[in-house]
Amino acid sequence: xxxxxxxxxxxxxxxxxxxxxxxxxxxxxxxxxxxxxxxxxxxxxxxxxxxxxxxxxxxxxxxxxxxxxxxxxxxxxxxxxxxxxxxxxxxxxxxxxxxxxxxxxxxxxxxxxxxxxxxxxxxxxxxxxxxxxxxxxxxxxxxxxxxxxxxxxxxxxxxxxxxxxxxxxxxxxxxxxxxxxxxxxxxxxxxxxxxxxxxxxxxxxxxxxxxxxxxxxxxxxxxxxxxxxxxxxxxxxxxxxxxxxxxxxxxxxxxxxxxxxxxxxxxxxxxxxxxxxxxxxxxxxxxxxxxxxxxxxxxxxxxxxxxx
Length: 308
Prior knowledge:
The chain is about 30% helix and about 20% strand. It has helices at about 15-20, 40-50, 60-70, 100-110, 115-130, 155-160, 185-190, 230-240, 250-255, 290-305, and strands spanning about 5-10, 30, 55, 75-80, 90-95, 110-115, 140-150, 175, 200-205, 210-220, 245, 270-275, 280-285. The two termini are about 15 Å apart.
């Protein structure tokens, strides 16, 4: 019997990509609400409560409203792609490769909070070094990143692509989050095992999909005896036994003249690089902001939950 999946917000950027990934699948039945009826609360509530798994592709407040519509229904399981529940203690964080036990936590969970695209890269770089003791308490972590503009949803897509839009953006690259209070910082802090909030500097480029996340480090301020090789070895050990996150060999990284933010567009995985020049280290993650950074991760989490 096919599992019933309802994508609440299926006509948005993330929802459409999830639908595309499941279009040819025969092991799931997609419950769909016509775009003209997407604001019909009764129909929406009925579909939410009819699903085996509901994937919420909504703003934070709308996600919370959707969860409240399940009051008294203990059968429906939820994957939420908003920021509403990413640090909630009773929600499993949907980054399966985050540590060895996380996939099983997702598989057994009723509520799963899909990670943000930036935090997937940042946590993917930071957490292994915290877990291994390489990154000491109090280290002033900074995270620099650039994303494809689809990460901003339909509004930003229109601003970037439609020259007649009243708020058209002509910039090829722009910084935002200039107050340094970005909504992704709490999940980076908690799931990155940090005891001090990182300084996060996000930006958007004039390309639709793709992402580079960088975490620069001063080698002398890391744990005694740390080397480029030991950092790389810690990352390799952390991600051993799975094929979603790849740690590029040091020798291969050393040959690269550049890294393309779009190198993993259309793929649902992540690559990690380690670069070192004497006292300085640069950790780099590349991913598709709508792949492993959003829709691909949601489908991966759904598959884990269906395998329970």
